[in-house]
Amino acid sequence: MASSYSLILLLSCCSLFFVFITATQAFAFNTSDGEEAHHYHTLQLTSLLPSSVCNPSALGNKRSRGSLEVVHKHGPCSTLNEDTVKSLTVEEILTHDQSRVDSIRARLATKTGKKDILGSKATIPAKSGSTIGSGNYIVTVGLGTPAKQLSLIFDTGSDLTWTQCEPCARSCYDQKEPIFAPSKSTTYSNISCAATQCSELTSATGNNPGCSASTCVYGIQYGDQSFSVGFFGKEKLTLTSKDVVNGFFFGCGQNNQGLFGGAAGLLGLGRDRLSIVSQTANKYRKVFSYCLPSRSSSTGYLTFGSSGVGRKVKYTRLSGSSRSFYGLTLTAITVGGTKLPISPTVFQTSGIIIDSGTVITRLPPTAYSALSKAFRAQMKKYPLTRSLSILDTCYDLTNYQTVEIPKISVLWGGNTPVEIAPQGILYANGVSQVCLAFAPNGDDSDIGIFGNVQQKSLAVVYDVTGGRVGFAQGGCA
User: CA–CA separation, 163 vs 356, rounded Å?
Assistant: First the structure.
């Protein structure tokens, strides 16, 4: 009897143990599924494609004084004339992007031997366009007295601000607005060849200034062979009705050629003494921020000053000694919650800059190989397809309406993690060719570049005086 009771008790204990183990395994499996789902984005494919309906940011007029809207040049929120601005194909965009990258490398490699030429706040609109490297953004500002509205490419990789000017002594390309006429402004003046600012053009443009009848002459050329040459002048710059910069130094272009996509010129946001950031240091303390919209049918902003900078911004230190580019320290990359096995020396060897004008992020080949391998491993259920220019990890998603993609995060110096938005992970040439939006450099020693696709929807804050750059999620929302 006792033996039978012991046997029953033993079987009962085994049963309970089996139930416990089964429940534990089931719980562990469910938890694992939950964790796995946490490391993926579920993305509607339509969110990667152009939309015909304008869907402006919810911020709209809720932003602080001086706030203006940012629209994509070729999107439905833009009023740009299609006859003036011809949209580039995806292949053309990526080709121009590579030209820009090559130009940046050349500028960083050339330390000497310049060529001879021939407090407050203001938020202004940025419009994404196809110019100087192809994927840049545009802001509209007022120049002169009375102020004339001009659409300028804003570029963190350039220093000199310039616009086309009448009488276009040699050549002017087609632009949206009437070309600026300095003779019709009561506040314009030329800069003399003897002025200190004239000599500063050497570092701002990479070319020694010229002189014509005692007037300083500038010249600047870009990676795609676009260029601007003209008189160096001083004028009133109106960012908003309440944010005016008197005596602003800029280039008044008389000979301008290139694929500027209807923009009147360029607004230089680099670190040089002639950039708008440095020229307005007393007013805005060398602080500016922007958010690049996640889609061409949405909007973003460019703000000078610390207004609107939220508490959720996470900062990393600026690095490098470049007087133009903004260098950062990249320490790690994660895909689907897993840190990639990349030696820190790989990133230390290359270095990396953040650039508003480069479209696709460039990584050292060793780092890109690890990224691509991990991404492909987590995208096995989707069919691979042919490469798209510099992008070699592409998928044919024709038969899908939604796609699950692994989250990608970068870790900046100072242990500052930044998660890339879903629209910053993929770059689409239609649903039949959707690619990982990263590309390898030619060599591990080539400078890395954090491009504007990966910056989409992030609030990016440049505190130049503080020597730091900050990031926050949902910047355009």
Answer: 19
Strand 352-354 relative to strand 314-317, pairing: unpaired
Contact (CB, 8 A) for 116 and 154: no
Q: How far apart are CA 69 and CA 476, in angstroms?
A: 10
Nearest to 314 by CA among 416, 458, 412, 232: 416
Give which of 410, 402, 469, 472 is closest to 438, Cα–Cα.
410
Token readout for 83 is: 């006859």
Q: Please choose, from the candidates 452, 384, 464, the residue with its C-alpha nearest in 3D space to the C-alpha of residue 420.
A: 452
pLDDT at 215 over 60: yes
Catalytic residue flag (residue 392): no
Helix (H, G, I), strand (E, B) or coil at 163: strand
How many angstroms separate the CA atoms of 396 and 385, rounded? 6
Cβ pair 247, 274 in contact under 8 A: no
pLDDT tens string 277-318: 999 999 999 999 999 888 777 778 989 988 878 889 999 999
Distance separating alpha carbons of residues 11 and 443, to the nearest angstrom: 66
The amino acid present at 446, given as its one-letter code, is D
* Phi, psi values for residue 170, rounded to 5°: -115, -60
DSSP state of 155: E
> Is omega for the bond preceding 167 within 30 degrees of 0, making it cis?
yes
Catalytic residue among 159, 243, 355, 463: 355
pTM of the model: 0.87
Return all residues near 134 (Cβ < 8 A) that are at least 6 apart.
Answer: 88, 92, 93, 94, 95, 96, 97, 100, 259, 359
**10 vs 46: which has the higher pLDDT:** 46
Which listed residue (155, 159, 243, 272) is catalytic?
A: 155
The continuous run of DSSP H or E covering 300 comes out as strand 299-304
Which residue shows structure tokens 């949902």? 474
Q: What CA–CA distance (Å, rounded) separates 164 from 256?
A: 7
| DSSP code at position 194 | T
Average model confidence (pLDDT) for the chain? 84
Is position 396 annotated as part of the catalytic site?
Answer: no
